[in-house]
Amino acid sequence: MAKLRPLPNVVQQWLRTSGIRLSMSQEAEWSAEEVYISCPKAGGDAWSRFSLTDAHLNMSQPIVAWISLSNDLHKGRNTGVAWAWFIDFLRLLVWLFSLTGLFILHATPSNRPLVWPIVGLGLVVPAC
Length: 128
Description:
Layout lengths: L2 E4 L2 H9 L9 E4 L3 E8 L2 E8 L5 E4 L5 H10 L5 H27 L7 H13 L1
Antiparallel strand pairs: 1-2, 2-3, 3-4, 4-5
């Protein structure tokens, strides 16, 4: 049965110099035979496995697929705090852009009878 425990600081520093990205509170799965370190990232899942029986280190950093990377960036999965703030900032800009667009539509002359039915369809059709 594997238990989650933090890695020693020396091991964390060594893994970081080896090119493995670790979080500040990185925990590993410890068992009697191995230590498994999961390093999820946007678009992929890197991992490292250290065998306690023969002191062998296996590392896997698969090539990131563009579709899974864009999906993870869109959802903000395994991207960090800066990306989450960036997504929230963009969401506010989109809301501001949409509201100012509705205000401009409201300010247009009323000689365009199809404006509001088309706006209504633009709200209803995506909801269906």
